[in-house]
Amino acid sequence: MKATITVLPGDGIGPEVTSGAVEILQAVAQKFKHEFSFREALIGGIAIDKTGTALPEETITLCKSADAVLLGAVGGPKWDNPNASVRPEQGLLGIRKALGLYANLRPVKLTAATLSASPLKPELLKGVDLLVVRELTGGIYFGEKKKTENTASDLCVYSQMEVERVVRVAARAAMGRRKKLTSVDKANVLETSRLWRRVTDKLVKEEFPELELEHILVDSCAMFLMKKPASFDVIVTENMFGDILTDEASMIAGSMGLLPSASLGDSKNGIYEPIHGSAPDIAGKGIANPYATILSTAMLLRSSLGLETEAAAVEAAVYRAVEDGVLTADLVSAGGKSVNTNEASAAVKSRLV
Q: Is 202 assigned a catalytic role?
């Protein structure tokens, strides 16, 4: 097949990890007889420096006309001013809105080779294989904001439609897994959460009666993710709760450098990116972990291009490299031998079968 992929390297280690991921996609294309073309565009801090905006119109155009978008990371100390009128994260929020992406999928899966990197006891980690689906375009992050000299407010708003569409994404994912869906809210306090719970109940009962649905408060979920993470299959929740819980869930795996994500909407086009940030402290040193970005390309192949065999091959290659001890600095024990970014990417490429 032919596909066009827009690459947004972004800031910090973004260019380093996306470079390795593009190499893997090129290897996939060659091995499986596809034709992938790549176009780079600006986003985030580097876009601010070069164009004065975090999301240039050219970037939006290239992303809209692509079959999929691969993103590195945005932000860094240079632009770290919450009072600035133009900030790198505006680029990320803007491109999600421009592409109509309302569901963020973050899988958490462990391998035996990385159990020691997790802060949790090994006995708690057995069987952990979960997926968090976070609503991306509603809630408190996008609500009306007001500020005076002494007060500030952020309005949290959700509609029935917004809840239905993201819960439907999560429910479909659960149907292909262990058929358990956990909906996370704060229905004992928030009206938006009461709406969320009511809509979720109705939708699952009517459209996905085979699913086991449980409701859990966000504070309890945070506790159980540490206490019994293997009990979860698919978690679905609103924007801010999801933002927090996905970062917590990432630590189950011991490193954000292993965890990919996909941001999806109603079309096949989506944004695929590692869940980690721009890591400015190690940018340019060539030691960043590329595995999460490479695993994000597997999600790209599966969800946007419909290439399940190729996606599975990439995932298997990454896990083989990790199991063979090809570990970057964030994954090795103190004093252990680590590989650099290019070596890790090359290890995946050589194991692609």
A: no
